[in-house]
Structures are given as C-alpha cells and as structure tokens.
Write a structure and sequence with these properties.
With 342 residues, the chain is an alpha/beta fold. It has 16 helices and 9 strands. The strands form 3 sheets. It has a 5-stranded parallel beta sheet, sandwiched between helices. Strands 5-7 form a two-stranded antiparallel sheet. The relative contact order is 0.18.
Amino acid sequence: MNACRMCRLVFTWLCFLSVVGLARAEVGRSPELDGCGESGRAETFLMGFLGHSGSSAVMSQLYLHSELHVPWPLEPMQKYIRSPSEGAKWTEDFFLTGKGMGLVPGFKLRPGHIDESVEVWSELVRKYNTRFIRQDRTDLLKGAIGLYSIRARFDRSAVAGLEKGEAVTHCALHPEHCYFDIENVRFFAYLMHMVQDGIRQLDDFADLLPWKCQLNVTYEEYMHDKDETMRRISDFIGVEYEEHESSFEKALSDNPCETVKNYQHVCAQLWGCEQFQPFLDNEEQGCYCLEKEYPRNAELCDVDALISSGTVLCQRRQENGTMKMFACTGEEIENKTKRRDT
C-alpha cells in the first residue's frame, strides 16, 4: 500500500478521534430520535463521541450516579482497539455484571472501536436494547485548537482536560500550554478538515447499529448549562437526576483569540476557505478576523491536497500499539523531502 493511500485511510478512521464538526444542517446530521418514549429505565446505554466533545466530563458525572454502572477508566474499548470482537465480548460481560447489580451499565466508545465487527456489535445492541447517546461539538475551530495542542505541541493536559481543581493555577504555572502560536498552519488546516469529516463519521455510527433510541448532546449545550444537559441525559437513560461534579475541567480558554496568540495570521491563511469562515468569527467571545479579503489557498482548503503533499502528517505509535497522526517535525519534513526528491 503506498504512503498516500495509507495516509488517506488513516485520516478516514482517525477522524473518529477528532474534535467537533459543522452545524447540524451543514453536515446532514440525523435528527434527535426519541424512540424510547415512555419505556422507563434503559437496559443498557453507550455513548458514541468525538474527542474534545466533553465526553469525559459527562461520563465522570455518570460514573458517580447511584443507578448506573460506568467503568473507570472511562474508555475501556481502548484496550481492544485491535480486536473489536473481543471488545464486544468484554462489553457483554460488563452489561451482565451491571444488570446483575440492579444498575444500568454503559460507557463511551469511538466509532472505530467496532470497526470490522459490525454484525457482532449489532447483535449485542439488539440483545440488550442499548440506547445511544451521540456526543459531539459544533465549533470546528475550537476543536482543532485542542487537537493542535496535543498533536503539534504534545501537551497531554488537553487530552481529557484537567483534573478537578487544577484549572485555577494551570495557566499561571504553565502559560505555554494556555497561550501559543499556531506555527504549523498546514497541519492546523488538516485538523479542521479532520474534525469536519469526523462529525460525518459519527453520523454514520449513529445510523450503523440498531439502537433502541438515540439522544444528541453537544459540548456547547453542556458548557452552557451542565445541569440541564445532565438532566436530559438522565431522563433519556430513565434514571433520576443526581447532582454530581465533573472530575475534569477545561484546559484551554473558550476564546480562540486568547489561546491563539497569532490569531490574525491564522485568519489570513484560512479565511479563503469558505467552509471555515463561520468558525473564524466568534461573536459570543468577541473574537473576529479583522480582515476578510484573503485569497483562497487551494492546498489548505482541500484535505486531499494537504495529505498528498507528503510533508504534513507523520505517524507515531501509541502506547496501545495503534498509529496516530501528528504534525511532522522539521527533521521529519526534511527527511520526507529528501526521499521524495531522490
């Protein structure tokens, strides 16, 4: 398999790990389905999510609920990323354990966790009448900023957020993690494309399995009113709402102009991409591109062009053995360029 094709395949599936997406009408999102009606307490539930969508914060609150059986760590399928069928077997055992305790079992997982085992997971979801919570976020730019912090600046504090109490002093102790330049705009553009495609992949995941019923939840809804969002989720699962604090806090400011020190430079590079424009001006936070007359950059606006350049993405092996795309370092770009030219 040639390198370009590999990059494209990795891009397609790693979009499941991404952050955010377009507004519902823009990406053809499925409407919220309330098929459970008055059927009472759920038998089981699963949350399909995109990274940086607040899923860890939400699940950490559900973990403390007296009527729910939620695992810790919150993403158990990471152990089975290479064996989705084994993950399904673990899930059935987890479901049975929770039900045996008189609780509603559930956890969060990424669409890629069921790859190549759709039939097995379909049987499982059907057998245990699993309800599906679809968790994402609507701001493409902010999600890409979070991913950039991880994939280009290697800041692990942005992965799941900060532990409770850390946010008060985090930026004072580590200002380089909170305020930085987007130096690699080509990679940042790739991340924006990635999360845009990831939201579509989450749509497919929501339609792929025979869920009992579905609930759409967004990061923005959760941040605007956490109590109301958790009440909606509790009602959907069919349990009483309980007030618990999240175990995680935001690592980055919600204002992109505050986090990204060279925001106007980013505007100059990306405003020409029409699909990005709605996210570059943030009225709520008072963050705007001051100039609007920028030409379209054909490479930045087209993910295929970015990938085919061969110098934007570099793979690195993770602790669980999977490969993930990161920004190429200067040395890696130099080596790639030499190989390409010889």
